[in-house]
Amino acid sequence: MTSSTETGGVTGTPDKDYNLIWYVEACLSNALRLEAYIADAERDKDTEAVDLFRKAQTDSRKGAEIGKRLLRSRLADS
């Protein structure tokens, strides 16, 4: 389901910044969830999983920061 224009028909929120807000929240939520996965893997002494989950957590945090910067920029311009 793709569209070339933002309509907000499903959510009732045609604001173009909504997608960025969702993205930042999803990244932060993922980083938080990965904290539990890291703890589980550490408890099991599974260093491969720990490394994978830490990398994924770092990537999620980075995505959130990039999204926040873009959102901040767009909100400042509006």
How many distinct helices?
2
For the largest beta-sheet, the strand count, sense and barrel status come to: none
Outline type:
elongated
Helix content: over 70%
How many beta-strand elements?
0
Sketch the topology as an H/E string, one letter per element: HH
Task: Determine Rg (CA atoms, Å).
Answer: 17 Å
Proportion of residues in extended strands: under 5%
Please identify the structural class as seen in this structure: mainly alpha
Mean pLDDT: 89
- Euclidean distance between termini CA atoms: 28 Å
Pick out the low-confidence regions: none
Summarize the model shown.
By secondary structure, this protein is mostly helical. Helix content is 73%, strand content 0%. 5% of the residues are buried.
Question: Would you give an account of this structure?
Answer:
- The protein has 2 helices and no strands.
- It is mainly alpha-helical.
- The chain is elongated, with a radius of gyration of 17 Å.
- It has helices at 18-43, 47-77.
- The mean pLDDT is 89.
- Helix content is 73%, strand content 0%.
- Helix 1 (18-43) packs antiparallel against helix 2 (47-77).
SSE arrangement:
Elements: H1 18-43, H2 47-77
Features:
single chain; mainly alpha; 2 helices; 73% helix
